[in-house]
């Protein structure tokens, strides 16, 4: 496996949009969870996306350091090295949910670093970055997106934007009770007018359709994936009518590359409809966190008297060796990644 080049990443996204499938985007917080994600993609014979949040990037640098750019670049370097051992699939690296207060300390420095890499004939460390403008009004959101899209072109990366607000909490960021949980076709037309549709830099759009971050039972989240179809249709019609212009190449019924956030507790039917309507990337975090930690808990409960020195005994070293429970956790998380690839239709479709 290789880490995607900018050209390969563009090919991945285009193939998913035209082929009617999506890539799981797996949040990682350590080399263990990174290895689990790589293992899962390889077992599923699927390309995919590995991403790190603002908190995850800080944690990756070491809790005594807590520096996001350091953690991000360390992850990228480690991923490039271990990825060489999985030659049959391609993985892109992405930074997730950068809110306005983190731009100057995280994504802007990374984009500047990557632009310098490109200027010196190297590949960028990451292949895409997310600007989470859900806490600012749409005009300001798109103003910042325009600036970041220009920087992304220099860095040969793809930008991800969020239009509206995803409910619940993501890494310390919580949507307000009156947040706009449903984007509109008018919002989409404004995005297309101000950012283009790939003519002035490639981007993915996370329009909101009732999404909620966190862990919920099926039925709690009230998704409207049909809204994504309305957004695509309205934009396609505006192109046909000459209301907006674009010379970019994309399927006429799917002008936008769409992203699905907050999918825990979603029904298979809602997920499938979202993908049919142009979702090419679905964030997977809560479920893989649980799969990893559940395996650790299972090991500890099953080996209670071996991982603890109970009543003055010495325990059993091979059972409290982190490699013991770590391998179980990685295998369990990898299994959940395989499940996501199968559900989203990317399994067995790694690009040749």
Automatic annotation (TrEMBL):
One term of GO molecular function: zinc ion binding
Known cofactor(s): Zn(2+)
Chain sites annotated for binding Zn(2+) 1: 97, 213, 261
GO cellular component, one term: cytosol
Keywords attached to this entry: Glycolysis, Lyase, Metal-binding, Zinc
Top EC group: lyase
Alphabetical list of InterPro entries matching this protein: Aldolase_TIM, FBA_II, Fruct_bisP_bact
Free-text remark on how the cofactor is bound: Binds 2 Zn(2+) ions per subunit. One is catalytic and the other provides a structural contribution.
Residues holding dihydroxyacetone phosphate: 214, 262-264, 283-286
Annotated metabolic or biological route of this protein: Carbohydrate degradation; glycolysis; D-glyceraldehyde 3-phosphate and glycerone phosphate from D-glucose: step 4/4
Gene3D superfamilies: Aldolase class I
Assigned EC number: 4.1.2.13
A GO BP annotation: glycolytic process
Catalytic activity: beta-D-fructose 1,6-bisphosphate = D-glyceraldehyde 3-phosphate + dihydroxyacetone phosphate
Name of one Pfam family that matches: F_bP_aldolase
Binding site for Zn(2+) 2: 132, 162
Active site: residue positions: 96
Purpose of the protein: Catalyzes the aldol condensation of dihydroxyacetone phosphate (DHAP or glycerone-phosphate) with glyceraldehyde 3-phosphate (G3P) to form fructose 1,6-bisphosphate (FBP) in gluconeogenesis and the reverse reaction in glycolysis.
Family under the similarity heading: Belongs to the class II fructose-bisphosphate aldolase family.
Annotated NCBIfam families: cbbA, FruBisAldo_II_A, PRK09197.1
Protein name: Fructose-bisphosphate aldolase
Organism of origin: Bifidobacterium psychraerophilum
């Amino acid at each position: 496996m290789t880490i995607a080049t900018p050209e390969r990443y563009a090919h991945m996204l285009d193939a998913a949009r035209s082929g009617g499938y999506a890539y799981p985007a797996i949040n990682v917080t350590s080399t263990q969870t990174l290895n689990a994600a790589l293992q899962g993609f390889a077992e599923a014979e699927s390309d995919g996306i590995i991403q790190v949040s603002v908190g995850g990037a800080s944690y990756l640098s070491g809790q005594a350091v807590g520096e996001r750019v350091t953690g991000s670049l360390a992850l990228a370097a480690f991923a490039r090295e271990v990825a060489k051992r999985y030659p049959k699939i391609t993985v892109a690296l992405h930074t997730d949910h950068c809110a306005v207060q983190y731009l100057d300390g995280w994504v802007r420095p990374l984009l500047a670093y990557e632009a310098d890499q490109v200027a010196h004939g190297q590949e960028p460390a990451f292949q895409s970055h997310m600007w989470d403008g859900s806490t600012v009004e749409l005009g300001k959101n798109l103003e910042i997106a325009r600036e970041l899209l220009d920087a992304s072109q220099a860095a040969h990366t793809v930008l991800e934007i969020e239009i509206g607000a995803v409910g619940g909490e993501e890494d310390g960021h919580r949507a307000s009770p009156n947040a706009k949980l449903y984007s509109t076709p008018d919002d989409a037309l404004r995005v297309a007018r101000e950012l283009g549709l790939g003519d002035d830099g490639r981007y993915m759009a996370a329009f909101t359709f009732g999404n909620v971050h966190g862990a919920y039972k099926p039925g709690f989240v009230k998704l409207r994936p049909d809204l994504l179809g309305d957004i695509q249709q309205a934009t396609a019609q505006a192109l046909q009518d000459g209301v907006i212009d674009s010379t970019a190449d994309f399927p006429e019924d799917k002008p936008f590359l769409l992203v699905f956030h907050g999918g825990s507790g979603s029904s298979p039917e809602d997920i499938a409809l979202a993908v049919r309507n142009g979702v090419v990337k679905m964030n997977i975090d809560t479920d893989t966190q649980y799969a990893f930690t559940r395996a650790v808990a299972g090991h500890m409960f099953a080996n209670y008297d071996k991982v603890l020195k109970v009543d003055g005994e010495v325990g059993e070293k091979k059972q409290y060796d982190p490699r013991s429970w770590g391998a179980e956790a990685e295998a369990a998380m990898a299994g959940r990644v395989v499940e996501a690839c199968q559900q989203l239709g990317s399994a067995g479709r790694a690009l040749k």
